[in-house]
Amino acid sequence: MTFLEEVQRRRTFAIISHPDAGKTTLTEKLLLYGGAIHLAGSVKSRKTAKHAVSDWMEIEKQRGISVTSSVLQFDYDGCRVNILDTPGHQDFSEDTYRTLMAADSAVMLIDVAKGVEAQTKKLFAVSKERGIPIFTFVNKIDHFGRSPFDLMEEIENVLGIRTCPMNWPIGINGEYKGVYDREHETIELFAKDETHGQEKLASEKGALTDPRMKELLGDDVYQALLDDIELLDVAGDPFDFDKVRAGELTPMFFGSAMTNFGVKPFLEKFLELAPSPAPRQAVEEIVQPTSEDFSALVFKIQANMDPNHHDRIVFMRICSGKFEKGMSVLHRQSNKTIRLSQPQQFLATERTIVEDAYPGDIIGVFDPGIFSIGDTVCSPGKKFQYEGIPTFAPEHFARVRLLDSMKRKQFVKGINQIAQEGAIQIFQEIMGGMEEIIVGVVGVLQFDVLKYRLENEYNV
Ligand code: G4P
Prior knowledge:
The strands form seven sheets. Strands 2-3-1-4-5-11-6 form a seven-stranded mixed β-sheet, sandwiched between helices. The protein is α+β, with helices and mostly antiparallel strands and 460 residues long. Helix content is 30%, strand content 29%. Bound molecules: guanosine-5',3'-tetraphosphate. Guanosine-5',3'-tetraphosphate (G4P) is lined by residues 17, 19-25, 43, 47, 50, 88, 139-140, 142-143, 256-258.
């Protein structure tokens, strides 16, 4: 495959949603259909695991698993798919914003019964600001929810983006049997889910005009579908690729991640419409992903994932050029040349060493202690520098005081490293030293995390 083909087959996206809309479940099902896992984990075991932990322990748990789940990669239909994990906790944190900086598109997941929720609004606003295409997946249509027309209206009124359903659920009052593909005018009816969504769901396809489909649906459901189609064609927005790319129109899909209903049609259409890596604005120029010169943007740093090794992993999104294991790159902010010697990539739950990677891919490398969020690395001799990732104004402040002054060194190190990761911002140092400082955070949960990490990772 040529370099150009490698770039063009990349699809890098993040799923944004309010907690509990089904992001974890959908991600898992995309992996199932992508062949990266063979049996989706049972919902039950997750349920017990989930409610047993308090909110901030949840963050810890997420940190614990997020090295492996930060980016999930699989191949489908010739595409190389990278799903970026966004933190799922209630606290709106900057993490999500940074993750979106590495994405080329976003999938907005909406619970059919709940519609647009608080977190959906915030994350939508951030995606919109990034100017990336936003796709909508209305989830949980296996149980009773709101009418699809009602949801379209809500998305348009509350979020201010036009909608264009690509498919449409077939059935009356939430009793859905399948989806109608508007472009191909075909019906896909799904079998009853017998495996609690652990395995792919069987389906049967046929043309809208196929008498067998009409027979399978029954006269009432069939007629209701025809009425819906007519209404959509007359009153809905037509599909317009340019508007999708500009983030002005969201292609909409319906399904149930839990039962796998509609997951495959969504995945296939999404991969067809979603953009490959886009050009990116650097300080002095616009860098094309197909440029031969390598460049990448640091969007996430995670320290002490393994308590036995105090290592920091830096996640970077490749923006241009081909990455090869062991290559030397220039770290723009320090002007140092470094070798990226143990680059890692993530497939389902495994970490693997990457031999090469292309624009759109995310790699994790060990940090020799020089990286901060928003840094650029590039081919030596090049002067690319991406515009940094903006920080949010903190909304909460706290005074942090070191109790045991013998531990000053660890305290300073801990505070600084956690600040470099972007979890906190350091404001005023009191009395000239670091024994007492003021930190600011965007979400209050970060205070708990800070305290917990200082105690457990830095022993202060
Ligand atoms: P999140 O990552 O967005 O927070 O959501 P997650 O996937 O954990 O899903 C949240 C809950 O919604 C889970 O229930 C999950 O099984 C359920 N869910 C996900 N997709 C669907 C769907 O298509 N249909 C239905 N009916 N449910 C779905 P849970 O944690 O087991 O607990 P509970 O809320 O069912 O009690």
